[in-house]
Amino acid sequence: MARIAIGGFLHETNCFVPMRTGYEHYARGGDFPPLARGDEVIERTRGSSCGMSGFLDEKIDLGPTALLSIGGVDIVTASRRMQAFDQDIFKHIGVQPSAQKILVLKSTCHFRADFQPIAEAILIAVAPGAHLVDSTQHPFRHLRPGVRLSPMGPEFRPGKE
Predict the structure, then answer these.
(1) Are strands 4-7 and 60-70 parallel, antiparallel or unpaired?
(2) Which pLDDT value is given to residue 13?
(3) How far apart are CA 134 and CA 63, in angstroms?
(4) Is residue 59 within 8 Å of 50, Cβ to Cβ?
(5) CA 2/CA 12 separation, integer angstroms
(6) What is the structure's pLDDT at 89?
(7) What is the pLDDT of residue 145?
(8) Are 136 and 149 in contact (CB under 8 A)?
């Protein structure tokens, strides 16, 4: 059975559990909220720094990070928000993105430069969260009339929701 890597680096703090959690939950599990236990934790780091392959000239501190395997799905999760600019966000914890059959990111567009070359296809899905992929769904009030809400998309009209 093929392993699937999933990255959820850009997420609300309640995306996986109903409260903030720390390294201790990755390490021991069993208490609320139990993210993972025993064999489900493949790799973990107390403080994780990730280079950005030339995108940025510095390392990014992701905080406590874990590679979990739950129900045959491998999940990389970090305690600090981070846009998945490039593949290093996976590589630093031992996941080779180009070796995955399916790679899922909760991201908007910044991932394309480094991930598109290894992808056969990119599928965009709508997911809940603070950032809406469909800009026509934002409740804009102060745009000038006629501004397009997406490339070749509808124009903004005040009072129209």
Answers:
(1) unpaired
(2) 38
(3) 30
(4) yes
(5) 28
(6) 81
(7) 92
(8) yes
Nearest-angstrom CA–CA distance, 74 and 118: 19
DSSP state letters, 62-113? EEEEEEEEETTEEEEEESS-----STHHHHTTT--GGG-S-EEE--SSTTHH
Q: In what order do the strands lie in the sheet with 60-70?
A: 41-50, 60-70, 73-78, 4-7, 103-105
Name the stretches of the chain with pLDDT < 50. 1-20, 26, 29-37
Alpha-carbon distances, residue 12 vs 30, 105, 112 (angstroms) = 23, 14, 21
| pLDDT confidence of residue 66 | 80
Predicted pLDDT of residue 40: 59
- Collect all residues with Cβ–Cβ distance below 8 Å to 53 and sequence separation of at least 6: 86, 87, 88, 114
CA distances to 108, 109, 116 from 113, rounded to whole Å, are 12, 9, 6
CA angle, 137 then 138 then 141, to 5°? 130
104-120 residue pLDDT tens: 887 766 788 888 899 99
- CB of 5 closer than 8 Å to CB of 95: yes
Structure tokens given for 87: 């593949």
